[in-house]
Design goal:
Elements lengths: L14 H6 L13 E2 L2 E2 L30 E7 L6 E10 L5 E8 L6 E7 L7 E8 L2 H4 L2 E4 L4 E4 L4 E3 L7 E4 H19 L5 H18 L5 E7 L5 E2 L11 E6 L3 H7 L23 H6 L8
Antiparallel strand pairs: 1-2, 3-4, 4-5, 5-6, 7-12, 7-14, 8-11, 8-13, 9-10, 9-12
Length: 296
């Protein structure tokens, strides 16, 4: 069984590493300075000079940027307008896909924002993930909830529509903590606007939510993402998880409309709909041909 928390990364040995390992002597160590044409002093490159198995080469023969590289983009804070940096990093989730994590932190006013985006092509079908959470070990599972994913827990009548909390990459316990903090803040901010009955009902709901996120009661977690960009960690991967059910389904027309997929034009977008070009003609010939004069 593969360990989802285990990671391996290869790196190039230096000249000093090869000497310490006894692979080469000090006199036989390759020259480290390189020019564009190859190693100075001639001779074939050593194993340490070649790209490792974990690195890929593009069609031009250049090395693809390391997955550990962090990209920094300058910008301004949306809260205080002072300059800040937004950091972006690519992360590969085992048995899922590559995602992009963006983090913004303003040292001036304390504003923080984290966002997760899925990379790659759009899925043709939606995905629904149902997990039976039975103990606290399940609360430590990684979860990626995209901004198009809805989340629900039927046992406590919790329903989060798509877009709530935005994109998040955390654990089940972490995302339930965020939901609790958001909802409990609304309870205290409502003040006298809510009736006693409404406050009592809401407090009872928060109490049940607190029991759920503490692992005091089993519950069912459902993720429904029409773009299949959400993920729930399988502790038994690559084998099936006995407590998890993954369903693929066809999106409805209403879902395609809400996501803007119905308005996407992937073919023939160079011309407007209805402006069909007759056989044997091109756009250039149509422009050159004069319009026929109307019959008198």
């Amino acid at each position: 069984m593969a360990d989802p928390k285990w990671n391996m990364r290869e790196y190039h040995r230096t000249k000093e590493d090869n000497v310490l390992l006894g692979l080469v002597s000090q006199d036989e160590a390759p020259v480290q300075e390189q020019e564009e044409g190859g190693v100075i002093g001639g001779g074939p490159p050593t194993i340490g000079d070649l790209p490792s198995a974990s690195q890929e080469l593009s069609a031009e023969g250049t090395t693809v940027p390391d997955m550990d590289e962090i990209f920094v983009f300058p910008g301004s804070c949306s809260s205080c307008s002072r300059p800040l940096d937004t950091k972006m990093k690519r992360v590969v989730i085992p048995y899922f896909k590559e995602i992009i994590i963006m983090s913004t932190n303003c040292e001036a006013c304390g504003y923080r924002d984290n966002e997760v985006k899925s990379s790659g092509a759009m899925s043709e079908r939606g995905k629904r993930i149902t997990l039976k959470v039975e103990d606290t070990d399940d609360l430590s599972r990684d979860i990626l909830k995209s901004d198009t994913c809805g989340l629900s827990i039927p046992e406590i009548d919790l329903v989060l529509s798509a877009g709530t909390l935005g994109g998040r990459f955390t654990t089940i316990e972490g995302i339930l903590d965020q939901v609790y903090d958001e909802l409990s803040g609304k309870l205290f901010s409502s003040g006298d606007a809510a009736t006693k009955e409404e406050n009592a009902t809401f407090e009872d709901f928060l109490s049940r939510l607190k029991d759920v996120k503490a692992g005091n009661r089993p519950f069912t977690l459902i993720l429904d993402d029409p773009l299949s960009n959400s993920y729930l960690q399988n502790l038994y991967a690559p084998d099936p998880d006995p407590n998890m059910v993954i369903e693929l389904y066809d999106r409805t027309k209403e879902q395609d409309d809400d996501l803007g997929i119905s308005d996407m034009k992937l073919e023939g977008y160079e011309q407007d709909e209805g402006d069909e070009i007759p056989a044997g003609h091109s756009l250039e010939t149509l422009k050159e041909e004069p319009e026929a004069e109307p019959l008198s």
